[in-house]
Amino acid sequence: MTEENLQSATKRVLIVDDDREIADSVRYALQSRGYEVLLARDGNQGLAMAEREDPDLMILDMMMPKRSGFLVLEKLRRTRSFPLRIIMITANEGSRHKAYAEMLGVDDYIRKPFAMERLMESVDRLLG
Description:
This protein is an alpha/beta fold. The chain has one domain (about 5-125): 3-Layer(aba) Sandwich (Rossmann fold). Helix content is about 50%, strand content about 20%. It has six helices and five strands, in the order H-E-H-E-H-E-H-E-H-E-H. Strands 2-1-3-4-5 form a five-stranded parallel beta sheet, with helices on both faces. Helix 2 links the parallel strand 1 (about 10-15) and strand 2 (about 35-40). The two termini are about 15 Å apart.
């Protein structure tokens, strides 16, 4: 293991996305970089895992069943004593959504489809 991988080995990333293909490919990319990965399939599960597992970073899809990424983000911002780093990923093209996500304090906002390298650079930057 390289020193970079050892440094990231303790970092935990929670992926909250109902799209199995995207979630699995992001998980694989993160694990190959030495991150510990947690996975939630909907907003409610993601919120519960964020509270229980206290990850270092959340990769959050905007459009999900049960509770949208925005509702998850709003709740996390209200209930956590210190903010969780969050990258929001979305297929939504609207600039209003991006502005709202930024107002709620997302650390990065990435539109689907995205280059995996773009996402990994953001993760490394936020957890570095």
